[in-house]
Amino acid sequence: MPKSTRKRSTGRVSGRRGRGTATSAVETITRPQQTLPVIILLTFWRWRWELLVLALVGYIVLAHGAAITGYFESNPLWLNALLIIVLSGWIFTDNLVRRFVRNRMWCVITRHRVRACLTEMRTLNWSGNLPFIVGCLSTKTGQVVWLFMRPGLSAEDLENKAETLASACWARTANITRSTRNAALVRIDIDRRDPLSKQHIVSPLLNDTSDMPEQAVADDAVMAFLGPDPANETPAVDSTDSRPAKTGSGETRTKTAKTKTTAAVNDGTSVILGANGEDVSDYV
């Protein structure tokens, strides 16, 4: 029989220039082809606050650097030290400018940490695009981040990822909610502090006992009212009200009104007695 002309497979496919290429390689993450203007625009948008701060510092140094240096050289040393102390105290005290700068810094940090966490969790669509971070705003407990989910992504891709986002943002907790009007908008609440943790809340119902010691509270009239009644002996009294009543035939009959009386026994419990002296406590 003629020999087969098909060559035996060696497991390698020779490519160009003699290099072997794997035939079973699968590219799981692809990147779309972006033009240079788009890349530059996205870079400016992502680092806009950092670039704004650098531009502001550069403008102050170039435009007013000589004037600031001459002002400090013309003043005595003690006045310069006093100015530095006052400026440092104003920076570290609680004021509007300090709160704004602190909140903006945390918003910038949170936005970068959320983006890094989404990249590590591979929250990408098939084109390799991350959710677009619309903005990051400051709240009383932390920050809120708004995401716009690209085509191929939804809020279900972030299910059970709250703890991962909180850990990446160095926060206490993180809550993920979807917009009720648009499924592509997702809100992430980053909680960094609890505003009620350092406040002592006193109920208005305890105005009379909130500042009293424990022994005084134990002897309060309310506690005495909730305690058992003191044992006292009260004899049972059977009261009957006999009044003659006229009938239609001219005869009179006596109408007896049966009343219930209460007697206290030595063990401090109340007993309800009927008109004939019978204990009817179990029936009332």
Write the layout of secondary structure elements.
Elements (H helix, E strand, L loop, with lengths): L12 E2 L5 E2 L14 H11 L1 H27 L2 H16 L3 H25 L11 E7 L3 E7 L13 H7 L4 E6 L6 E7 L22 H5 L2 H6 L13 E7 L5 E7 L2 E4 L5 E4 L11
Antiparallel strand pairs: 1-2, 3-4, 4-6, 5-6, 7-8, 9-10
Commentary on this structure:
- By secondary structure, this protein is α+β, with helices and mostly antiparallel strands.
- Among the domains are: 33-93, no CATH class; 99-199, Threonyl-tRNA Synthetase, Chain A, domain 2 (2-Layer Sandwich), CATH 3.30.980.
- The protein is 34% helix and 19% strand.
- The chain has seven helices and ten strands.
- It has helices at 36-46, 48-74, 77-92, 96-120, 162-168, 214-218, 221-226, and strands at 13-14, 20-21, 132-138, 142-148, 173-178, 185-191, 240-246, 252-258, 261-264, 270-273.
- The chain has a four-stranded antiparallel sheet with strand order 3-4-6-5, with helices on one face. Strands 1-2 form a two-stranded antiparallel ribbon. It has a two-stranded antiparallel sheet with strand order 7-8.
- It is flat.
- Residues 11-23 and 254-266 have low confidence and may be disordered.
